[in-house]
């Protein structure tokens, strides 16, 4: 069923986008389909599906491809680290954070199979995570006007700023602990979510009873924590 029902839906969306203009769908639409396609490829032991997902992430036409998803880089004063503006930063922070929950899953699945998407393009996912986390921790970040065929967003969105989403454990464990990189904002965001959860990231249903509460598996403290 995964290869005959779900994979064709993933493939159809990523190649046709329901007949819409290529920049119509936000990054999260592509990213959830990529994570699904990649996972099906792993489970079914079908490298063609795995490679299709990875190739799209690296060079696809839609907003889930890495250079369209994290499309503007800045250098942070003081640390000299890269901060990467996400494609949905001007939309709202609920979706801007969702993107990193989804791309974290895709990158972790890929890393487990020997393909390091975390490190791709000089750790570009980390740059995006640091930007997203810093802003949602109440700090200022630079912003460049974003336009697509539907909207022009001249300001970063304050909508849902400070969203609590269980994703920081996965991202910080890889970048901050395993690779020893400066992921200070991602760590601070992780710590905020863990504190909010009483000492650990929660899972589905702990972050709201509507569909948004189930956007990611969660339980990252149990699954990914590498430091004390």
From TrEMBL:
Q: Which SUPFAM superfamilies match?
A: Chondroitin AC/alginate lyase
Identify this protein by name.
Alginate lyase domain-containing protein
